[in-house]
Automatic annotation (TrEMBL):
Residues 31-133 form the Endonuclease YhcR N-terminal domain. Keywords: Endonuclease, Hydrolase, Nuclease, Signal. Coiled coil: none annotated. It comes from the Bacteria. GO terms for molecular function: endonuclease activity; hydrolase activity. Pfam families: DUF6359, Endonuclease_1. Residues 1-27 form the signal peptide. InterPro entries: Endonuclease-I (IPR007346), His-Me_finger_sf (IPR044925), YhcR_N (IPR045939). This is Endonuclease I.
Amino acid sequence: MPPRRPVPLLLPVLALALALVAVPASAASPLTVAQAITTQSGTGTVLGYIVGEPTGTSTVRFSGFTGDTALALADSRTETSPARMLYVQVSSAYRSSFGLLSNPSLIGRQLTVTGTLTAYFTHPGLKSPSAMTLGTTSTPTPTPTASSGTDAYYAAASGKSGAALKSALHTIISTGATKLSYEAVWDALKVTDQDPANSANVILLYSGISRSKSLNGGDPGDWNREHVWAKSHGDFGTSAGPGTDLHHLRPEDVTINALRNNKDFDSGGSAVSGASGNYTDADSWEPRTAVKGDVARMIFYMAVRYEGDDAWPDLEVNDAVTNGSRPYLGRLSKLLAWNAQDPPDAFEKNRNQVVYASYQHNRNPFIDHPEWVSSIFG
């Protein structure tokens, strides 16, 4: 037999190397600020909002800028906590274009920056930038997070049920949550409730109408900020806290908002003109079928988030529709049924993720796990 020829092992190795080289580095998505803060190693590209000028390890100036050498990035335009900011060094090549003393109007703009992920001001940072580019002023729509992706967030609730589950979730969604001003809610709703088919519009909760983002206000034909848990049920007003919590604030037509007023939720009544599928009577409101579950999960969130341990009333769900100014909202039996009948859809899941990632940094657990509703309230 002729001798066997040696297998050219170098060829498959070269093929693999060429395949790896063929993948462009740009294929990877930019890091969020939160990801960059935890990474702090090697070179990275980060996308975030310019929110201020770092002046120390835990201090950031939001106006009256004094230099062009540093800026702070965050995942939200409205972020005020330095702990959730990435400090970016602005080297001499970029100061005329990106320094805040020279360009104060950059506040609120998106920036994509590539550089070394390393501490700056002994704070998570990015130094020696090799590229800085202004992004669009609109917020990219985050991918909805599946329940399996939130296991770590809900780790303290694992295996619990009933009152123990409610207590664990209360701690999880209250810890580290950011409170918005009532004015900031306007801009936030333009992002959280953006029409997926028209980025210039928002979707109104009860009527389902797509309306221009610019028509926010208090006149007929405008949309305003609907408190799904009516603020008079506990008299919490519009101060930062339950009155500004995005997990129950939604855009709605001014006239329809006034018709709903502070009514509890129940089935029946007369058809609502201008909001097809909604019904109302003297003491209750029935939303359209497509958002019945959304409404229920917002109410259940509020009852878990606000337990009376943070200077706000202890909000509770009951089976009544005559709650008036008491910190109760009903009707529980209907809300339970609506949660089961109308499970979370893509819009609701995406909204939950946007509130979490860009604004409040807490989640509505009943969107991620609608089965927990019956465990706590059933």
